[in-house]
Amino acid sequence: MRRKERLSFQALVKDEKEKIMNNQEELDKIYDKIEERMELVRNPKKHA
């Protein structure tokens, strides 16, 4: 990736991160997904 493209990509990622961090609903969705995945790891279902 060229330097100019990389810098614009990094700026885009930073901008999106700031949008998400300032939006409580988006943060709640992220935490819900994390909790769901952690629950699956903590309680693996036994097969057979």
UniProtKB/TrEMBL annotation:
Pfam family name, one: Fur_reg_FbpB
Top-level taxon in the UniProt lineage: Bacteria
Name the record gives this protein: Fur-regulated basic protein B
